[in-house]
Structure formats: C-alpha cells, structure tokens
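Late entry, written up from scratch paper. The run itself happened at the end of the previous shift, but nothing got recorded in the book at the time, so transcribing now.
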Amino acid sequence: MSHFRPHAAVLLALLLAGCGRSETRTEAPATPPPAAPAAPQPAPAPDLTSNMTSDMTTDMTTDMTADPTGATSDPGLLTSDLAPTPATGAAASLPRDRPLRAAFLVVDGVYNSELMAPYDVLQHTVFHAKPGIEVFTVSPGGQPVTTFEGIRITPGYSFQNAPPIDILVVPSTRGSMDRDLKDTALINWVRQVGGRARHVVSLCDGAFVLAQAGILDGVPATTFPDDYKRLAQMFPRIDLRINVSFVDAGKVLTSEGGARSYDVAMHLVDKLYGPKVAQGVGHGLLIPWPPAPGTLKFDTAVPVPPPPTVATPAPTQGP
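Output as recorded:
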C-alpha cells in the first residue's frame, strides 16, 4: 500500500498533463470576453447641402435631357400618359402636325408677372400634350428689352420675321395706357396679327392695347381693377366686366393680371386640350386644377342667339 500511492500520483499527473496537450491541439483558441457596450453616440446630422445639391443636379439633368418631342420629366407622369390632341370639342381643329405658336409681345417696361405666368403655363403643355404649344417673345424691332423689374430679355423675333401666330399674348407694360397706344407700328401689328390669330389674350392693362387696336369693340372684357374707370372712359364700346379674374369672350380672353394671370392661362389650356392636360400642367406648377368651387370667379361670354321670329298671323277678314 505504501508503494501504490506514489505510482498512482505520478500516473494521475501524467494523465492530466496529456489531456491538457490534447485539448490545446484540437480546440479553437478561447473566445475573448465580449467588450463592454460602447455608450450610444448621437446620429450625425444629415448633410442637407449634399442632398440639395444632389436633388438639384438630378432635376437639372432631367429637365435638360427631356425629350423635346413630348416626353415629360414630371415624376408623376409617364411618357405613356401624354395625351394626344382630342379629336372632339374645341380642340378638334388644332393642327396635328405642329404645335400651336404663342407669341408674347414684349417692349421696355413689360411687367414680369403678366409675362412669365402665362408663358410658363402655355410652355408646359409640351410635357402633357402632343403636340403642345411653342412659346416665344416678339419685340417691335427684335432688340433686347428690359422688364419693369429690371430683367433683360432678348426676344426670339421681331415684327418682320415672326412666324405665323396662333395665340397672341399682350402682357401689361408701364406704357400700356399711354406710350404704347401712340406707337402706330405696334398697334397696327397687334390689329393684323390678332385678327388672324386663333386666340388673343391680354393681361392687366394689356387690354388697353387690344382696345386701341379695335379688338375689344363690343367685346366683354376686363383689366386691372384700379383701371376699370379709365378703360371704360377711353374705350366706351367695351362691355366692361368687373370683379372677375378673367373674361373668356370666345376668341379674346382678358385678365385682371398679377397673380391672376395664371388663371386665364390655365383656362385656355383646358379650353384647347381638355381637363387632363390642364391638370397635368397644374400638377407641375402646383396650381390646383380645376379650382375648388367658389375659388375662381370669371365670366364666359357666350353669344345669346336672338329669339326666333314668329310670324304674326294676318287678321281674319270678315265675310
């Protein structure tokens, strides 16, 4: 018994040592204990400048690469949604092989609002109708003009080389009620082009120019509210309508101007191409269309046919 214990102890020690070496060769290294969780860090602030630059770059690239034949960069409208010119109603006689041509008369002192509001609306039809409206500016001599607010504009054409015009637009200018009315060449051009055009549109005091050209004789029309009295006194043959955004007299449309210049342009788009195209243009410009009931007041002058003539029976002759 006395010799057994040392041998047993040595054997036990060897067995323990062997087990340790075997474990070292066959098992993966021990996994270190997990680190203590780091304190939460605040989320970095979004890079607004980067996002804005990215968005602007995307928008500019999209606009610059838009298909001039009618494709749209409006994310809410697919190319397949482009509406061909309706074949019925007021648009039945629109040209099918070319866009309508809308000319904006510009002279020194033209007001930005009356020029650009309808310009934008009519131009945006190219994204929603096929074909849409081609818009351009015309000045008497084709020379650059400066708006009342100071923007320098180089017109696309002069009176001499302007193409045939379907829609003549006469925005208000600083001289619409005096200086422009004395410009014989300007008034004669408006009279001739307006007489041949499908539609003539005036904004604000542009109505005075149309009146001087004789286009508003006997026609329901409106102008800037402060100038109702002056228009009525200078041109008593006008059927003046007041407290309305615009008047649609068929061929001629007149607007009170300012921010209301969008209204008459949107109405004209609806009149020419129908509500689907007008809604598309309004979507792109953030203009609700059709407007909510009661939010837009305008006159639509429809000629009333005379009552039928009833022949008076001849008196009965007695026997």
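The helical segments are 4-26, 48-64, 112-123, 184-196, 206-212, 228-234, 261-273, 275-285.
(Scratch paper discarded after transcription.)
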